[in-house]
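Risk register update: the risk of archive-format incompatibility is retired. Evidence:
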Amino acid sequence: MLVMLSEWLSNYVDSFRVFSYLTFRAVMALFTALAISLALGPKVINWLHILHFGQPVRNDGPQTHLKKQGTPTMGGLLIIGTIIVTVLLWCRLDNPYAWYAVITLAVYAAIGFSDDYLKVVRHDPHGLRAKYKYFWQSVAALGIACAIYGTASTPAETTLVVPFFKKFMPDIGFLIIPLCYLVLTGSSNAVNLTDGLDGLAIITTITVAAGLGIVAWATSNVNIASYLYIPYLPKAAELTMVCTAIVGAGLGFLWYNTYPAEMFMGDVGSLALGAGLGVISVLIREEFLLFIMGGIFVMETLSVILQVGSYKLRGRRIFRMAPLHHHFEKGGWPEPRVMCRFWIITLVLVLIGLITLKLR
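Archived output:
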């Protein structure tokens, strides 16, 4: 919105041309999202307190979590609302990639809100039943995937980029639909599973979003894309602002979510943020890169799959408790230690992911 307004104003005042610079808008998107989330954080916490939107806590979990009972949840409304407002302010509104990101965040936030509402307001410990939750996640993922494929106008938009291979980049055509479906449903549930400790999910999401933002910027630059042998996607430029908006909103939320948390994001935040990272990776054609950068999300998900599978097949558990972060808590690690070490691992994985762009 602001960039389009600045283009008109630049006809009269040359200084408004700065709004057309991608790096300027990316930084301003981060600062805008950070300022909004920091300013509204206390009001949202107070509002959630008034509505009695307190976090329910499992009795079979770590005993240290029992004191978190009643901490305001559904703080993801602050994160997602801030991101969407920031994107609408700093992105070009004629860019379809920006709208794909906004729609994905909004739809998955609605699914997460339904789950949180049933748990917190209706006091249903099961929330939105798993089959219904997965059904609506699938409907959303397939709808977005079909739209992305239907609006693809160049082979680059349906190219499969495989790490470490310079010339093996096949055009997968309509197969982008099932791939997008798997990425969106997988990433949304993976971030949801990771959201179990103060600051863990959001700081991991921030780090991965920053890495994807760098790749989105590189993908939209014809010279850098050619140098790195990655698809040149000029429309991906606006995803840089989406990524920095996620970073800014996430940092603002982390101010209130760091240990001991004053509020939690809930499913409304985790499902939407996971799907947001997923759709960005699909649009910039770097699904495998998300798998590398989001290694913590992958490990958390695999720990649950292995735990459930082992218990059903052998009647024995592999981990003390799943997801993985609870395994280390049960082993005596303090919550901040788990969060910090997982963040260090994520930072390393993001750097490795960025390195793979050149190691081909």
